Amino acid sequence: MSEKNETNGDKRLEKATFAGGCFWCMEEAFEKLDGVVDVVSGYTGGHKENPTYEEVCSGTTGHYETIQITFDPSKISYNNLLDFFWKQIDPTDEGGQFADRGTQYGTAIFYHSEEQKVLAGKSKGELERSKRFDKPILTRILPFTEFFEAEEYHQDYAKKKKLQYGLYKEGSGREKFLKEKREQHYTKPSEEELKETLPPLQYHVTQKCGTEEPFKNEYWNNKREGIYVDVVSGEPLFSSKDKFDSGTGWPSFTRPLEPDNIVEKMDTSFGMIRTEVKSKYGDSHLGHLFGDGPTSTRLRYCINSAALRFIPKEDLEKEGYGKYKKLFKK
Q1: Cα separation of 106 and 138, whole Å?
Q2: How far is residue 323's CA from residue 229's CA, in Å, rounded to a whole number?
Q3: Per-residue model confidence (pLDDT) at position 9
Q4: What is the CATH number of the domain that holds 103?
Q5: Which of 117, 164, 245, 286 is the most buried (most CB within 10 A)?
C-alpha cells in the first residue's frame, strides 16, 4: 500500500497509525475527537499479507492490533493525537495491554513521515521526563509499512455491540487503570519545556506572577458550561457553575472545583497584603483571593485567563475529565 495524502473537498487530510492494545477501545476513543475524519481497525507491522484476526491473535505474524486515523490537521494536530494516545494506554507494559496479553497487543507509534518520527520521539521523551509513570516508557516508535483492515465485524465494534463492548472494556481493567491515571500525576513540566510550549503571556502569568489586562482576556466573559483546568498541569480548578461577573474584567469564581488543588499564599508585593492563589501540582500563579464575593462565604477567586484552559461540558469525557459530566446534567 503506497502512502498518499488524501483530500476532503479542499481540505488536506493526513494519516496516523497507533497500536494501543485492543483496537475496539482505541477506535472508540479516537472517534470522539474533533478533527478526526475516520478511524479504522486493522493490523500493522507484521510479515504476512492480509492476515486474519485469528492469525494475528496467535502471535505468529508479527502484527500489532492497530488503528489508522484519518485527520484534518487544520482542526487537530499530530501532537494533539500523540497526547491523546498516551492517555489511552499503559506505555510501561511490553507484554500486552491490560487483560490482553501478547506482542500483538503491544503499544507502538507507526510514523508516516520523518516529521511524525521526530514529533513522536519528542512526545515520548516529554512523557518520560514528566514522571507520570514510575517505570520506563516501552512504547516503540516504528516506521509505517503497510496497514491491513480488520474484518468488518471489528469495525465500529463499540457501536455495533454496545453491551458486549461495555462488559469487555470494564472487565479488561483498561477503564479502571485509565481513570486512576487521569486522577493522578498532574505534573509541572521542566522550565525548558514551559518556555518552549507556553505562549509568552501564559509563561509570564503562571511562572512570573504576572497579570493580564482586564476585559481583554479569553475567559472574563465566557458563559459556556464546563470546567477550568491549570494550563500547565491540567489539574481541575474551577467550574462554570461557580463563575460570576465581578465587574473586574477577569474570570471570577465563588469557590474552587477541587479545593485540594488550590494553594493560598501571603503576597506582600506592591506594598499590599493579599492572598495569592496557586495550583498545587503545576505550581502556577493563578491570581488572588478576595473577601468581597457575592455568596455567604464572601469569597472571590480572581483568576487570570492565561493560567487556565477551558474544557466545555461536551468535551469532558474525551479530555479525560468525565467524572465532572454529572455537574452539568439537567
Answers
A1: 9
A2: 14
A3: 54
A4: 3.30.1060.10
A5: 286
Looking at 142, 158, 182, the residue that finishes a domain is: 182
* Pairing assessment for the beta strands 262-267 and 274-279 based on DSSP bridges: antiparallel
Q: What is d(CA 275, CA 264) in angstroms, rounded to the nearest whole number?
A: 6
- Other beta carbons less than 10 A from residue 266's beta carbon: 8
Q: Which residues are catalytic?
A: 22, 302
Q: Does 142 lie in the same domain as 72? A: yes
CA gap 129, 126 in Å, rounded: 5
Confidence of residue 213 (pLDDT cuts 50, 70, 90): very high
How high does pLDDT run on average in the chain?
91
Q: 241 φ, ψ to 5°? A: -65, -25
pTM of the predicted model as reported, rounded to 2 decimal places: 0.60
Question: Where among 128, 153, 182 does a domain terminate?
Answer: 182
Q: Could you give the number of structural domains in the chain?
A: 2
Same domain, 175 and 280: no
In whole angstroms, what is the distance from residue 14 CA to residue 82 CA? Answer: 14
Of 98, 108, 83, 90, nearest in space to 33 by CA: 83
- Counting every residue written for the chain, the total comes to 330
The grid coordinates listed for 188 are: 509541572
Q: Grid coordinates in use for 167?
A: 462488559
Higher local confidence (pLDDT), 119 or 189 = 119
Q: Which residue type is seen at 222?
A: N
Residue 261 CA to residue 263 CA, distance in Å, equals 7
As a 3-state breakdown, the chain gives helix, strand, coil percent values, each rounded to 5, of 30, 25, 40
